[in-house]
Amino acid sequence: MISIQDLTVRFGEVRQQVTAVDGVSLDVAAGESFGLVGESGSGKSTILRAVAGLIDNWTGAISVDGRPVTRRRDRAFYRLVQMVFQDPFGSLHPKHTIDRILSEPLIVHRIADIENRVRAALDQVQLGARFRFRYPHQLSGGQRQRVAIARALILGPRLILLDEPTSALDVSIQAEILNLLSDIRQQSGVTYLLVSHDLGVVAHMCDRFAVMRQGKVVEVATRGDLATGSLSHAYSRQLLLASRGYDRAVIDAFADE
Amino acid sequence: MAMNEPILDVAGLNVRFDTPKGEFHAVKDVSFRMCREKLAIVGESGSGKTQTGRAILGLTQGRVSAERLRFHDIDLLGLDAGGWRGIRGRRISMVMQDPKYSLNPVMSIGDQLVEAGRHGRSPEKARGMALDMLAAVKIRDPLRVFRAWPHELSGGMGQRAMIAMMLMAEPELLIADEPTSALDVTVRLQVLAILDDLVKTRDMGLIFISHDLNLVRTFCDRVLIMYGGRVVEERAARDLQSATHPYTRGLLACAPEIDRPVPRLATLQRDSAWAEVTP
Asked: Which residues pair with B208 in a beta bridge?
């Protein structure tokens, strides 16, 4: 579904350049759920932003559904690829009703039957029509993230980029959103590229995942590898140990920043 | 002082806010006693955990009432401004969640540390102590960080600097409100190890406010679980898995676990009775 070859993203002026993503290659099959896990600054979100066209200065090759992605994305690209952002408080327009937020992609893409599609999208994320004419501030964090997911789904994309979709939410709300995302993938066969700092979320949502550090993929592993603890890279093993909770004895062995 | 003598005794603590929509009862009849231990207050957003921590230091905007709010033999409810000055930052300190917003952006780290430790000390002595404290929180180059500005530090470094600042007065009780939630997982554990060592070596009490049940289970000694302003359950941290309250059990069940993958996560069925005050 998506193939990334030797992707490199650099930020800043020549003299103080930061290489955020450093020669990353990935292949994700159609219908797969693939995770990118790592700590802050590892480049995981930057990969999503480069794919989505939110960053221009990348080099390498990206292709989605067999077609190479060009600098200037056409409308067809965004019918294929949509994104859900981390912060449900910042990613919805505060002065637009839910109805307008969900209608806008349809208007931009000149799709008819807006009314029914908006209703269907709200049903799909289990919000229901009563939310249609509310504003984002009248919704809880979990409800807002459902709206963001509905907005991503409304164009019927085949690939959804999920950037920490639950890290701003309480753990009980996270469970509801992750279950919703699982249901959507089961029903529609959509492909997920999911970024998270939480190994537990990645283990739950993704068949395979890449562990990232300082812009590089250090290891690609499967959910099974994680459950049996058979990770090959020292950094991945450290991440796994750290995710299991506090253990004074193991912490002194951690390699520093 | 004996290890098991309570340093903090809270009974029937209530925090109420007046809102245009009527009174909001944020903390309802919370009672606990703590010794020199690591006590966790856990709950989701809006559970009242932060307001409980702030009420102890008299820092909440709400109306506080309690049957008892005692630190050693001091009645915190009856303190005047002068009385609070002797407690806040000296005997009880607080570490906030985000070093980005809690450090003064226009003051160097060193100046902020020295300011926190100035009472009763000469500037030279306070400076020496600041460098010692930065070393105590495992900062490898204390002098560099002493001279640095808050924006020059990473999140983990900033949080260590803030803990160092809180320790300048050598408090007996440290209230840490989500001190590591903004940090990466490995840095988080390193900061926790520092707090853990400090509790042991300085014989300090720690109130650790968190939303992360898995973390407090492995880090703290005792856990209070809050829901809707109430403490619904109290457990020894190591016995958390055998919690009986449906809310605690629900919270434990709905977090994805690496070692025990499930096809579908359990969701929490909330019961409005959990938040009701039982007479």
From this structure: B40, B176
